[in-house]
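Show me any protein, keeping tokens residue-aligned.
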Amino acid sequence: QVGGFAWENCGDKKNPVVLQSLSVAPDPISIPGSLRISAAVSSGKTMASPLKAVLVVEKALGDLWIQLPCIDQLGSCTYSDVCAILDNLLPPGMTCPEPLLTYGIPCHCPFKAGSYSLPASDFDLPEVELPTWMTNGNYRVRAAVSNGVEELACVKLAFSLQSQ
């Protein structure tokens, strides 16, 4: 479906980490603006360092999907150590920001096995200087997380962005 929010798991059935539900509003997502997200994830395995994430980001250009390059850590990037990135954003020992704290959702590695759910929560999307190629339009993202040779999770998202 084009121009609407959609998601699916894309790993094989053996992936230990599975997105159970995800909803995002408004649709299209407005930047700046408020984003309401609810989600549930189940993990059959502790996710520990080094966690690698590979993103493939595509934007619709007419009927074509163009893969966006990785520029300034945005776009189709490979992040070889997600745990270190999280530690840089939120120094270890600091409490996780809301609403993660309230719902017991960790923001640092290791992520223990179990079920995590985030009831509908509002996040402010600030005015950010996005490159022009990352503004209005329809997007597809494939995110795969692995630890060494094993793929732990794979999720595909489709969404529309509208910048003010």
About this structure: The two ends are 24 Å apart (CA to CA).
